[in-house]
Design brief:
Protein name: 2,4-dienoyl-CoA reductase [(3E)-enoyl-CoA-producing]
Bound molecules: hexanoyl-coenzyme A
Strand content: 5-15%
CATH topology: Rossmann fold
GO molecular function, one term: oxidoreductase activity, acting on the CH-OH group of donors, NAD or NADP as acceptor
Catalytic activity: a (2E,4E)-dienoyl-CoA + NADPH + H(+) = a 4,5-saturated-(3E)-enoyl-CoA + NADP(+); a (2E,4Z)-dienoyl-CoA + NADPH + H(+) = a 4,5-saturated-(3E)-enoyl-CoA + NADP(+)
Radius of gyration: 18 Å
Keywords: NADP, Oxidoreductase
Helix content: 40-55%
Strand order of the largest sheet: 3-2-1-4-5-6-7
Pfam family, one: adh_short_C2
Length: 268
């Protein structure tokens, strides 16, 4: 679908996306690139990274991939530093890496719980922590008056309660807390805007394949005001709004992009 934005709204910006090689992260990489940004993507799987980088480059987008796991602080530091070496600065950090599986609390080992917390929550904090030096006003490649941006991909599961998702609900609740607290403290001290997006069910993603097999998709329609799944494009357009000048006064918010699903009830 054609973008409603001008093609230069992220011109000259450098974005680093964890999980930027697949799913929602890759669509954000693509749309950021199409709107003028240079793209660094971080991921664990070399083949996924390579394919994503080639695909971006075939669109004329400046792109580079760095292997790394957000659970390892040394990987986070190395990837942030490599991004700076490659592009000279960092303007936008997108935390899109996530882990998920369906499991009941009684079947979930504490290590399984911790694994998702480590990827989603601790990983997000670690990336923010390692990127601060470059995102803050006056950081390498930045002016002394303007800081960069952080965008955290969250969910709506934890607004209520979700079956078989206790680990992800806890992890994304923590991500939302990081968004608010960093917006307060780093917004004030370093002029960094920190926001989030909470996607609803988005078609053609690992999340949907794992969480909602095909037979469940039809059932969603009974609940959904817009009677359809979202598209990765919808999330990328929200990401463009939040990270471009259009969103310059938005800080500390997590924008729900779910067609109204989380607050809806079945018709009766
Ligand atoms: C129960 C499980 C499990 C499962 C893993 N574990 N899978 N427990 N059911 N299906 C437990 C293991 O038993 C182990 O605990 C611990 O978790 C670590 O497992 P590993 O396999 O060693 O972990 P690892 O190889 O690091 O893989 C991480 C992962 C994996 C999260 C388990 O699924 C992954 O890498 N996912 C990344 C891609 C992904 O899932 N993306 C989708 C994001 S969708 P023990 O005790 O046995 O040692 C998304 C949407 C959210 O985030 C919102 C939706 C609305």
């Amino acid at each position: 679908m054609e973008s409603p934005y001008k093609a230069n709204i992220l011109k000259g910006k450098v974005a680093l996306l964890t999980g930027g090689g697949s799913g929602i992260g890759f669509e954000i990489s693509t749309q950021f690139g199409k709107h003028g940004a240079s793209i660094a993507i971080m991921g664990r799987r070399k083949n996924v990274l390579d394919a994503a980088v080639s695909s971006l480059q075939s669109l004329g987008i400046q792109a580079v991939g760095f292997e790394g796991d957000v659970r390892k602080q040394e990987d986070a530091r190395r990837v942030v530093e490599s991004t700076i070496k490659h592009f000279g600065k960092l303007d936008i950090l997108v935390n899109a890496a996530a882990g998920n599986f369906l499991v009941s609390p009684e079947d979930l080992s504490p290590n399984g719980f911790k694994t998702v917390m480590d990827i989603d929550s601790v990983g997000t904090f670690t990336m923010c922590h390692e990127a601060l030096e470059y995102l803050k006003k006056g950081g390498q490649g930045r002016s002394s008056s303007s800081g960069g941006m952080i965008l955290n991909i969250s969910a709506t599961l934890h607004y209520t309660a979700s079956w078989y998702q206790i680990h992800v609900s806890a992890a994304k609740a923590a991500v939302d807390a990081l968004t608010r607290n960093l917006a307060l403290e780093w917004g004030t001290d370093y002029d960094i805007r920190v926001n989030g997006i909470a996607p609803g069910p988005i078609g053609d993603t690992t999340g949907m394949r794992k969480l909602a097999p095909d037979e469940m998709n039809a059932k969603f329609r009974d609940y959904m005001p817009l009677y359809k799944l979202g598209e990765k494009w919808d999330i990328a357009m929200a990401a463009l709004y939040l990270t471009s000048e259009a969103g310059k006064y938005v800080n500390g918010t997590t924008l729900v992009v779910d067609g109204g699903l989380w607050l809806s009830r079945p018709r009766h």
